[in-house]
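Retro notes, structure queue

What went well: the backlog is down to a handful. What didn't: a couple of records were mislabeled last round, so from now on we paste the full input next to the output in the thread. Example, using Alpha/beta hydrolase from Candidatus Pullichristensenella excrementigallinarum:
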Amino acid sequence: MPCERTRYQERIVEVGMYFEHEGARLYYDRQGSGAPLLMLHGWGGRADSFLPAIRDFQAVRTVYAVDFPGHGNSPEPPEPWSVTEYMELIRAFIRRMGIEGTDIMAHSFGGRVALLLAATYPEAVGKMVLTGCAGLRPKPSGKKKARTRVYRALRALADNGLTRRLCPKTVERTREALVQKFGSPDYRQLSPAMRRTFNRVIAQDLQPCLRRIQASTLLIWGTEDRDTPLWMGETMEREIPDAALIRFEGAGHFAYLDRYGEFRAIAWKFLIG
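Corresponding output:
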């Protein structure tokens, strides 16, 4: 997408820009004027995941919306990443844009990055609105443990030193068949490199970071969220020193879109006043 820059009454629109840092490329849009507001999308999303909020908040804020590497218009990371590498990239982006102390609005995986950023570099973050925020490791159910054991046993039978020497192509096909049967929808659609990144991301438990977060944090959660269950929001409210949790009854993982009018009003009051 070409870069377009226009100014109207000090309002900035920059579409299709790239930020490069240590071999990674980060696509971003910048729109509006005023104090900065950085929007971080969830796994499998992109900057456009926040379109309604971008449309509304750019009236009073300079809104930065990014595509994380491996999503949208941003190429995959140069190697498998964890949350830490994504966080360091966003930290470098904040420095380059000159938006220290930016407020953040984040969903799901974007919340993981925001949590680690706020705990590691408190000076980089102002207030945070986190919705359906990921980052805490759930205890697997008995059913999930059994399913994992079956998957690992089948993979060990299909993929070992002998099978790789005798029929490597069959091994690759069998591994992919097992992924398609046992993997989550998010995982199945990823490239091999992004699957390794996904595994590193979900293995990283951010609960130890929560008590180090200084930013005022508003948590907005759907009570029917199955991807990041409500107990995660309740734990974050309890452990982040300055946090409050608002529940949207009956909403799911995309509570901010399911009930956008309410989300906008609450986030606006918190961020703008």
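Agreed that this is the format going forward. Reviewer comment attached to the example: Residues 142-158 form the longest helix (17 residues).
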